[in-house]
Amino acid sequence: MSKVFAESLLLIGRVLGPHGVGGLLKIESYARSEKTLVTAGKVYLRRSPGGISEYKLLSALPHKKGSLIRLEGLTSRDQAEAYRGAEIFIRKDAVRRDKDEYFWHELIGLRVYLATGRYLGTVEEVLPTAGNDIYVVREGKEEYLIPAVHEVVQRIDLEGGHMILSEMEGLLDLNEV
Hints:
Largest sheet: 6 strands, antiparallel, barrel
Strand order of the largest sheet: 1-2-5-4-3-6
Number of domains: 2
Order of helices and strands: HEEHEEEHEHEEEEEE
Number of helices: 4
CATH class of the largest domain: Mainly Beta
Helix content: 10-25%
Structural class: mainly beta
Strand content: 35-45%
CATH topology of the largest domain: Elongation Factor Tu (Ef-tu), domain 3
């Protein structure tokens, strides 16, 4: 796989295993909904070690804590089993997102400041929760858990590499133990 091609792909999930006998794949999706996969139209599966296989996506449905996908050409449990553990990619240019919607990998490493200019640290990870994501911001021994909501996050500047937070009473106090 060429480096240029690899850079045009976005990791969107992983295959947990086959589902049933007809070639369905049970997956863990990193996308907000199956709509992201359906919109992309094609998925790329990478086994380790091995190359990438391209498939047309026929369907994607929510199932328990994951999703079930049907790919053109996978028609048996054995074929699906061969992709257990494979990473699932889509083309970055196939993803349609809202103006203030970001991929996690874009947020990791952003410098985080309060609107007053106080530096808090960098986003080191993003934790998904039922209501909203949580940004884990660290600097040295300090750690802040920041809710990813409009009331808290004023601005995200990917080009500038920073995030500005509203100065809200109690926001940082909750993080002190």
